[in-house]
Each structure stands twice: as C-alpha cells, then as structure tokens.
Specification:
The structure is a single chain. The protein is of the alpha+beta class. The protein contains three helices and three strands. Strands 1-2-3 form a three-stranded antiparallel sheet, with no helix packed on it. It starts with a strand and ends in a 12-residue tail after the last helix.
Length: 108
C-alpha cells in the first residue's frame, strides 16, 4: 500500500491511498482534507511550546506571566484548533491549568 498526498489547485489536499498488487495498481480511496492554515499551525505551536515549558520554569514571576500568555493564546485561538493535534505534555499542562476545555469547537 502506498499513500500519495498532493496539493490541488484549491486550498484542500487530495489524499489517495493506492494498493499495489503484482499484476495491477488501483486507487482504493481518495479523500479531500483541509489541513490547518499556516497561522493556525503557528498559534498551535506557540501554545504547545509554552505549555511544555511552563512546568520547568523556576522563577515564580516568569511562570505566572507565561501562564497568562498561554491563557490569552488559548482564549483567542483555541476554538479554531483540532485537539487531536496536541501532544501529551501540552495536553497534560493545559488540563492542569483548566484550559483544555477551551481547545476545539464549542461543545466538542
């Protein structure tokens, strides 16, 4: 089986899963997906990296300032993010801070 991912003319991506047999090749499934935008990726990276860094911060003033920065980012951009993209450490810290419920569409 081979996975082929190609950008299309539109803003979506075309993903084709191809099953290769010795005598023939045929496409099993083609799926249209919409990856996150570059801006969404940058916002998610900022939230993840900040959330991963906070537990290791020793200075109390810096730590509280970083928590407030993280809270602001999550409140501003969290609803437009897919929670499945977050790693374990970031997810754990966001849960600990009570911000995980703000990630993803409302009611998800």
């Amino acid at each position: 089986m081979r996975l082929s991912i190609r950008p299309c003319i539109t803003s979506t991506w075309r993903v084709t899963i191809v099953y290769v047999r010795p005598e023939s090749t045929f496409a099993l499934k083609t799926v249209e997906t919409m990856p996150e935008t570059q801006e969404q990726w940058y916002n998610r990276q900022a939230i993840e990296q900040l959330a991963q860094h906070i537990p290791f911060e020793r200075d109390a003033a810096s730590k509280s300032e970083q928590i407030e920065m993280l809270r602001g980012l999550v409140l501003r951009h969290g609803r437009e993010m897919d929670p499945e993209y977050f790693g374990f450490e970031a997810r754990s810290e966001l849960i600990r801070l009570g911000l995980w419920d703000r990630i993803g569409p409302d009611g998800a």
